[in-house]
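Board notes (copied after class):
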Amino acid sequence: MSYSVEEVNGCTKKLKFNFESVDLSNEINASLKEKQKSAKLKGYRPGKAPLSMIQSLYGPQVENQALYSFVTKEFYTAVESEGFKVVGYPKFSETNYEVEKKNISFSAEVEVLPTFDLNDYSGFEFTQEVSTITEDDVNKVKEQLLNSRSEVVAINDDNVTLDKGHIAIMNFEGEKEDGTRPENMKGSEFSLEIGSNQFIPGFEDGMQDMKKGEKKTIELTFPENYHAEDLKNAKVKFDVEVLEIKEKKLPELTDELMKEFNFDSVEDFNNKTKQRLETENKRKADEKLHQEILEKLVAENNFDLPKALIENQVTALKEEAKNSLLRSGFNESMLEEYYKKWDDDFQTRANFQVRSGLILEKLSEKYKVSVESSDLDDKYKHMAELSSMELEKIKTIYAGNENLQKNLSYAIKEEKTFAELKKEITIK
């Protein structure tokens, strides 16, 4: 063996290589001839320059390329021989090539997936939440569905007062303490559903019981966390005039209407909605339980983590946050400030996600968990039953998106791993 291995920490190895009488002449000559074919030198047609001239011009470059090729080949051969699961790229150092003696030595430091044993978890105890779906829960979904087909109509009775659910057509104008009336605090024939919390706290409450044609001044204080800096904690008053009051008219709930939403009937809607809500509640309860289990496992199992995995996860978390923040109006400068402010949080979350991911992988290996095509088929069927979508359409969607299928497979593997794990711990 022409190398030795040093352990820097639980997930970093340093390999030291030493080779004697290494002949790179064949590789160097082959590279020079390849260079000769493409070299364009003054006074010579392409590919016709003397090899000696190519040697004088490109010798050091070609020699370095041959050396690099040799070094990387030997490194990855050693890694494969040792069975290391490499993370990230190696850092080469201490490279030395004695041309006369043809001796080569170098070192390579590389991060690998840590090897560890899980501490005993058989004594773990957890409590899983159990909730029952009621008729009211189904009715809320039913109301949302009917709302999507509702018609907004004017209320002609001038004695009707604004209440939650009513839609006020109004003019409004805000005034700050200094007497200024900013343009961003004005609205004309603005439509506002009372109870929608579209405006700052207190505004919609102040409009309740107003009648058509009525004017009123509502005094408020902007929230401390309001997005506009100049309005945080600002005391303001709004002059409001109600021009019209409208309400939503919901359609009648019929079998025919339910067919438009891909249900066979009202009864079919009720049954599938209850089943979907039960599944969703079960999923949320499982997620909460699984998170608690992971937190306990992470707390009980301390081992070194590869920096490369942490850095990759931090990058992924920032990218995820970036998409949301850009939609909220952030620019690049604001993003950088946000990343800097919450760097510790990103690091903590990334550390937890990497460690818990490695623990779950360790458990899936222990339980010999695998994802079969039948597992995917079962999941597709379940999706079809809950969504009223055609099974073949769901299969087509996933078959055409590699990331979707990969994420689904990972989710199934995680479910099966937790199912096995929960057999060995106490769940109340």
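Comment from the instructor: Residues 151-249 form a domain with the Chitinase A; domain 3 fold (CATH 3.10.50.40). The chain has three domains: 3-112, 151-249, 263-427.
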